[in-house]
Design goal:
The protein is an alpha+beta fold. 33% of the residues lie in helices and 29% in strands.
Length: 135
């Protein structure tokens, strides 16, 4: 069954996101440490949308979650500026923090946590699909 949460592009919406992911993970039998990792990945992705997709304007972010076989599939949709996070290179995490370029660490975490990260833009909508194997 697909569930959906609609958020405003406002950082104060993050607790609602966390609750949604936690409930979804619990319903699907994900262990608590797995739920924490899912929350981290989804929080990073949605925070990027909140901070960058709409500039200073208002907008919505739609998050859906669905079990597909042995995976949980989360889809994040927004109508902000086109941005393909899969095209961002990985940061050099071997460098000391003060020598690294800014940005990209959140996307690095998302890639490490999730088993699949896919982007597409359909008409004026960004769609980021994050997949996590759960069995």
């Amino acid at each position: 069954m697909k569930t959906e949460l609609v958020l405003k592009n406002d950082i104060r919406e993050i607790p609602r996101l966390e609750e949604f992911v936690s409930q979804t993970g619990t319903q699907e039998g994900v262990p608590p440490e797995g739920i924490d990792m899912l929350i981290l990945a989804l929080e990073e992705a949605v925070t990027n949308v909140i901070n960058y997709a709409y500039g200073d304007g208002e907008g919505e972010i739609t998050l859906t979650a669905e079990r597909q076989g042995d995976a949980l599939v989360f889809e994040i949709k927004d109508r902000g500026e086109a941005f393909d996070p899969t095209q961002v290179g990985e940061p050099d995490v071997t460098l000391p923090a003060e020598e690294r370029q800014l940005g990209g660490l959140g996307l690095f975490l998302i890639r490490k946590i999730m088993d699949g990260v896919h982007y597409r833009r359909i008409q004026d909508t960004n769609i980021l699909t994050l997949t996590k194997q759960i069995e």
